[in-house]
Specification:
- The two termini are about 25 Å apart.
- Strand 1, helix 6 and strand 2 form a beta-alpha-beta unit.
- By secondary structure, this protein is mostly helical.
- The chain has a two-stranded parallel ribbon.
Length: about 220
């Protein structure tokens, strides 16, 4: 889940719940619920999935406490995993941007819940080392000594070039664009890529990086 696109605590709560339900392909049902309460009556799968998560029915209602909603959404990650007897990995991309919201309070809330969860592994990624150190490494950070710091380093260029070639169809290359190291040397390489969604490529690469980080985490 990408933090930079989140505008407030209410949206953060909603997106967390949506990402969880995505595991059951029910995220679109949650979107429909905001404008049509009938979704809960007509969609039996959706109704059964959220029967122990009544807080979901309160999304979009301004009178509801946004902090209670956020607490419920984070708790929903763990209860969903326990319900389906599976471990779940939840990733927050560019987590440093949480400071643009009520960063300190959100992190305190996260810590209070996460420390008791057994079924969930969290990945917090960020582009700025100083910001991430402030949030997770500094002695006064709520997450101090609670997280494992992983610095994956650089991914070899050839690996990403092969990735682009292998996924050219899925990522909707137009025609037969040349793929070279220039693609990985932005902004010079941007003009090489034409007729397809570069955003989709970045999103897919991010998912792969998350898997690499998770594999490294599980090995240690």
């Amino acid at each position: 889940m990408r933090i930079p696109v989140i505008s407030d605590t209410n949206q953060l709560s909603f997106e967390i719940a949506s990402q969880v339900l995505k595991n059951r392909k029910l995220d679109e049902s949650l979107n429909k619920l905001k404008n049509n309460l009938g979704e809960i009556l007509t969609n039996i799968r959706f109704r059964n999935e959220i029967q122990d998560a009544e807080f979901i029915l309160s999304f979009g209602k301004p009178e509801k406490d946004p902090w209670q909603q956020l607490k419920s959404s984070v708790g929903f990650i763990e209860s969903f995993a326990a319900k389906h007897k599976k471990k779940i990995c939840f990733a927050f991309d560019e987590f440093g941007d949480i400071e643009k919201l009520d960063g300190v309070e959100i992190i305190k809330l996260f810590r209070g819940l996460i420390q008791h969860q057994k079924q969930t592994v969290y990945i917090f990624t960020g582009s700025y080392e100083s910001v991430m150190n402030k949030l997770f490494v500094a002695g006064k950070s709520p997450f101090y000594r609670m997280v494992k710091i992983i610095q994956p380093g650089f991914i070899e260029s050839q690996y990403l070039i092969n990735l682009l070639k292998k996924n050219s169809v899925n990522w909707k290359f137009s025609g037969n664009p040349s793929i070279s190291e220039g693609v990985l040397n932005l902004p010079e390489g941007i003009h090489i890529i034409s007729g397809f969604s570069f955003r989709n490529i970045l999103s897919s690469i991010f998912r792969i990086i998350n898997r690499l980080i998770l594999k490294q985490f599980l090995k240690t």
